[in-house]
Specification:
single chain, 174 residues, mainly alpha, 3-stranded antiparallel beta sheet, 3 helices, 3 strands, 67% helix, rod-shaped
Length: 174
């Protein structure tokens, strides 16, 4: 029996060694696969990190542009406010040379220009010398729809070339 035991023992050792080698080989293969998968994961992670970094840079650039645009908008709004103020002032100053005449019936001009009609109206109504130069730059009816016959007539706006002429005419009227 000694021989059989020895053969069985050798056979068992050989089988055990083969089994261990097979296990070791499988472990090596498993480790190799895990290392490859880990390398793939690291590569994906690096790629994702780069994309995130690029996205963060784009976001920072966009935020800077938004801030610059906001600052420019604030400046433009300030300029707009200043220009509106200047425009209001200029409109007011341009009206300094104007008078408005009320109560002149529609169509009184009888085909003549409004300037010619107003010159005659003022010279006749204020007993001015016919040679007096009134320096009327422009004259027109108020910018509104033409009223019906029974409605109040539109006023006439007269713009003189100078404030002094306007004041002289107003002085004559009162």
């Amino acid at each position: 029996m000694g021989e059989t035991e020895s053969t069985t023992s050798r056979h068992a050792n050989t089988e055990g060694e083969i089994g261990l080698e097979k296990i070791l080989e499988e472990l090596r293969e498993f480790r190799k696969e895990n290392n490859e998968k880990l390398a793939d994961i690291k590569e994906d992670l690096n790629s994702t990190s780069k994309r995130i970094e690029e996205a963060e840079n784009h976001i920072m650039e966009a935020e800077e542009q938004i801030q610059q645009t906001g600052a420019a908008l604030v400046e433009l709004l300030k300029v707009q406010t200043q220009l509106e103020s200047k425009l209001t002032d200029q409109e007011g100053k341009s009206r300094w040379d104007n008078i408005q005449i009320y109560g002149v019936p529609e169509g009184s001009e009888n085909g003549s220009s409004t300037i010619t009609f107003i010159e005659k109206l003022l010279k006749d109504g204020l007993d001015l010398d016919p040679s007096t130069e009134l320096q009327i730059q422009k004259a027109h009816r108020a910018l509104a729809p033409k009223p019906t016959d029974s409605a109040r007539p539109r006023s006439i706006v007269v713009k003189f070339l100078s404030f002094k002429t306007k004041e002289d005419i107003l002085g004559q009227m009162w």
